[in-house]
Amino acid sequence: MAPARQHPEVAGDVERRHSGPGALVAFVGSADLDRSRAFYGGVLDLPLVAADASALPYDAAGTVLRVAAVPTVLPAGYTVLGWRVDDVAATVRTLRARGVAFAVYDGMDQDADGVWTAPGGSRIAWFRDPDGNVLSLQQAPASTSGPQTS
Fold first, then answer.
1. pLDDT in tens, 65-107
2. Where are the alpha helices (DSSP H) in the chain?
3. Residues of the chain with pLDDT under 70
4. Backbone phi and psi for residue 133, each to the nearest 5 degrees, phi listed first
C-alpha cells in the first residue's frame, strides 16, 4: 500500500506521539497463520518482523501489528484495523488486482470502487482479511480540521 502523509494530529508532534504507557501494538486474530501470512505479508505487502507458532508480527508503518493465532476468530461487525492512504482509489485498484474484494454496504452511497465519502470528506473503503476481520483504507480530505476515523 502507498504510504500516507502524516496525519495533522501527529505531524511534527513527536512528544505527543510517544505519550501514554508506551508504543502501541495492534492485534488481530487468525485461525490460520499460513493463510494470514500470505494475506498480510503478500497481498498487503507488510514486512514480517519475526514469526513463531503464536503470532506473526508485522511492521505497519512503525506500529507493530501482531496477527495472533487463535482457535476461532469471531469477526467484529466493525473496522478493527485501518490504514490512512494518500489515494484510496489507487490503493483499492492495487489491492483488487491482488485479489482483495471490497465491501459494498446497503444504504451507503459508495462509488463504483466501493469508496464512501464521509460527511467530513474522508474517503473510506472496507475489505476483510481471510478470517473475516473488517479492515479499511482511509484517504483524509484535502483539508482536515479534526480527527478522522473509520
1. 999 999 999 999 999 999 999 999 999 999 999 999 999 999 9
2. 14-17, 33-36, 88-97
3. 1-18, 143-150
4. -70, 135
Q: What share of the chain is helix, strand, coil (3-state, %, to 5)?
A: 15, 30, 55
pLDDT in the model for residue 20? 84
E strand spans, the chain: 25-30, 55-60, 63-69, 79-84, 116-117, 123-128, 134-139
User: Measured in whole angstroms, how far is the alpha carbon of residue 19 from the centre of its chain?
Assistant: 22
> CA torsion angle for 6, 11, 16, 20 (degrees, to 10)?
0
* CA atoms of 124 and 72, how far apart (whole Å): 28
